[in-house]
Amino acid sequence: MRVLVVEDEEFLAEMIVSGLRRAELTVDIAHSSRAALDRLRRDAYDVLVLDRDLPGLHGDEVFRYVAEQGLPTRVLQLTAAGPDGRQEPGADDRLAKPFAYEALRDRVLALGRRARSDRPPVIERAGVRVDTGRRLALRDGRPLALSRNEFGVLEVLLRAQGTVVSGDELIEEVWEEHPSYRTNAVRVTLGTLRAKLGDPPVIEAVPGAGYRMGDGAEPGGGGAAEDARR
Asked: What pTM was computed for the model?
């Protein structure tokens, strides 16, 4: 599960992020609405933990972006206590400050489950099609015989819609037990997955960042030689 925490109070933000990471969630942080919008344009999140009263650009602008873009991200709004702590239309849940960390964690987990249940069962990009309900994967209509981890990696990359997914994020999303040598485990799985997908290559390695699904227009994006340097 991937979470974005948007909170300008740095101590509170770090407390939230540290706790959610201890719950084995992948968490990013932004201290302003503009930073949050940059994150949302680049990456896909299951849950957004958002303080409305941010300096500069108001937190409501982030709500509007999520709604206008039709993002599946669920929103947990952090508000001031009292009558001024109203819930912005479009927020999925509201938590008034001060709050117990356990209450926030439980609400984030519940929203994350809702976000995942709303995901479309069929995803497609660059001729690669995954039917998560029937556990089927195809490339240009050709069935692919994928292992559980290969299928999981392909699903995560497809859902990211062309944005970069790090090796650690793939481990968190796909592997039931985290392997000791994370980078090697991801590299090996991606190598066999690429071989089964065939040409032209659609999975690109982004040096120092991770991997993404290309559009298949440019052959050779992120090949074995580049992967060997990671």
From this structure: 0.57
pLDDT at 54 (0 to 100): 87
Give me the phi and psi of 225, to 5 degrees please.
Answer: -65, -40
DSSP readout, the chain? Answer: -EEEEE-S-HHHHHHHHHHHHHTT-EEEEESSHHHHHHHHHH---SEEEEES--SSS-THHHHHHHHHHT---EEEEEE-SSTT-PPPTT-SEEEESS--HHHHHHHHHHHHHHHHHTS-SEEEETTEEEETTTTEEEETTEE----HHHHHHHHHHHHTTT--B-HHHHHHHH-SS--SSHHHHHHHHHHHHHHHH-SSP-EEEETTTEEEE--SSSTTTT-HHHHHT-
75 neighbors 91 (Cβ within 8 angstroms): yes
Chain Cα centroid distance, residue 219: 26
Question: Which of 179, 203, 212, 216 is closest to 42 using CA atoms?
Answer: 212
Q: Using one digit for the tens of pLDDT, what is the confidence trace for 119-166?
A: 667 888 889 999 877 788 999 999 999 998 899 899 989 988 888 888
Nearest-angstrom CA–CA distance, 24 and 113: 14
Strand order in the sheet with 136-139: 122-125, 128-131, 136-139, 142-143
